[in-house]
Amino acid sequence: MTSVRSVPTRSTVRASSTAFAAALASAFALLLLAAAPAAAQDDAALVARARAIHDRVMTLDTHVDISPAAFRRDAANYVTGVERNQVDVPKMEAGGLDVAFLIVYTGQARNDSAGFANAYAAAMEKFAAIHRLTDSLAPARVGLARTAEDARRIHASGRKVIMIGVENGYPIGTDLTRVKQFADLGARYLSLAHNGHSQLSDSNTGERDGVWLHNGLSPLGRDAIRELNKWGIMIDISHPSKLSMMQTLALTQAPIMASHSGVRAICDHSRNLDDEQLQGIKKNNGVVQLVAFNSYVKCDPAAQQAEAAEMSALRAEFGITATGREAFAAVAALAPDRKAAYDAKVAVIQRKYPPATVKDFVDHIDYVVKLIGLDHAGISSDFDGGGGVDGWRNASETFNVTLELVRRGYSEAEIAKIWSGNLLRVLTDVQRVAARLQRAQH
Where are any strands of DSSP class E within 246-352? Predict the structure, then answer.
């Protein structure tokens, strides 16, 4: 476990004639540094060192949402660049984001055959879009990785690495053979639920009303865990309920991961993990990918409610009736002058309610490192799904995260683990368990 400093130390304090005087001088210097703006603390040497580290380590983001429309040939796409997107290939190249898990997301609807069929079709469309990117749109600039070795090989070739995560097991329906199908398509993690209880697991959203469907995992969800272990897919516990996660820990034969969650001790939100959950992940040898999602990073319930009310009124003013992720598309579809007016009003609202910053985000990384160890912390953005903090608003600003880690005294080896090493270690362990289970079957 690293010794994490809360502020950078760029100079030494001269020893005085007594230990007391030296300690007093050191404490005073630290107080001055803590009070200074981060930019003022950065000299050219520190920034240059951070830049060199950023260029050498493999940076990996485990959660980037996608729209299949951005993977068409006849429009602005992931290769040419999509202005409204927080992530595309040009932004990854500009910001030094080396690996992105693109997400096969389906929202939660009724747990019936019609809902399962619609979700399955939507999931297959997103799988096809990702494969179109890597196979035909930009094979010279990106490659699809199925293993840690693939990721390192593609990265060494100078290309960006694409991996696939499945957010919500809902499209599996009741057909567990789809677990292997998704694995064959490249899925390397899957969450058993999203916002709303699925046929597999309760969701964290049950905390809002105390209504649960399964009291954790369903019998089908328990079977799904065995299939996920067998076919080498990491089990993602970011959206399922705490009880579901604890039951998963008792059942899984492989390490688990949280693809995009925060620390509940810092921000008391149902999407964040409490200390018991974090300790469980440590015992399981899993990894927590801390997420740069404003309302999971910085909790101020009164301010967030007021901001939400103002944003709701603004959307109504511009005739935007969609909610959640669909609202992003509705805003993007506004006529240019209307969108400019909308964006200007959003900026006014955001100035009233200062967002979380990269510093606030890295506080979550620090907490996990100190509580359960360096080997269990990673990074995610939830870009194009609501994610982003001040300083890391899109993939082109990825360096700012590395810079903040360097400010806090993390070494290059430690930063490499946080950015990608820990996640790839978990993936390798999961695939090793899968190989053993498959051998045992024959």
Answer: 257-261, 287-291
